[in-house]
Amino acid sequence: MLPTPARSGLSLLVGVKRCVDYAVKIRIRPDGKGVDTNVKNSMNPFDEIAVEEAVRLREKHKGDVSRIAAVSIGPAKAADVLRTALAMGADDAIHVEIPADTVIEPLGVSKILAAITKAEMEKGPDDEAWAWTMGKQAIDDDASQTGQMLAAHLDWPQATFASKLEFKGGFKKGEKVEVTREIDGGLATMETTLPFVLTTDLRLNEPRYASLPNIMKAKKKPLKKVTLKDLGLENEISPRLETLEVKEPPKRQGGIKVENVDELIAKLKESGRI
């Protein structure tokens, strides 16, 4: 275990997940039980936004954000997305390494992240403030559950689908934070206090590209590996769901051109649309 330096201020834990890259065309596996993951993988786009927001907070409030730690759960290859987070500006990373064929559902993920939080908090000073930030959902399962479940395990307030974040006071426990979220027909603004769990929406920011010098620096930043056994959770992350079948959506049918409105109405009636 790496020694944790003495610090004060806000420590940000940022969840990042390794997913099939958003630009890759998804292919169904031959067994019909999932998708082919032996393709290009990258950081979940919503988690990139979470990392960017953490780095921007430190740039805006110099001295108040003492640490940004990226956390990922996955096989050995998941270290790639942690190095990306380090290149974007995170200080250190924690990799919960699991076998490549292990499936962990959001409930299991939230238990792991809660255990990491408690372990990290024990090493810090009592007056240190903490917060989690992560994408509102992962683009592979679209569950949008981990942040909410993590908040429940930690008994922390949660602010989900954030499109704007503003610290109204300082960076100590109990200080107020204002979060704006997009809702149908407008915006909703809510107020919460530290510590809290934040999940990020698309319009919160635009993530930066990691520069080559920062990519090189990231190779020297601390990346700690832990196992489920280290966390005492090796028997508590069994999946509760079974995937029965994965199918591609039906292929789109070609359209037709009509000469006038009457013909359009007739065709819509034929197809049962009206």
Automatic annotation (TrEMBL):
TM regions (residue ranges): none
GO cellular-component term (any): mitochondrial matrix
Annotated SUPFAM superfamilies: Adenine nucleotide alpha hydrolases-like (SSF52402)
Keyword annotations from UniProtKB, A to Z: Electron transport, Mitochondrion, Transport
Keyword hit for Cytoplasm: no
Single GO term (MF): electron transfer activity
PANTHER family named among the record's database cross-references: ELECTRON TRANSFER FLAVOPROTEIN BETA-SUBUNIT, ELECTRON TRANSFER FLAVOPROTEIN SUBUNIT BETA
Protein name stated in the entry: Probable electron transfer flavoprotein subunit beta
Classification of source organism: Eukaryota, Fungi, Dikarya, Basidiomycota, Ustilaginomycotina
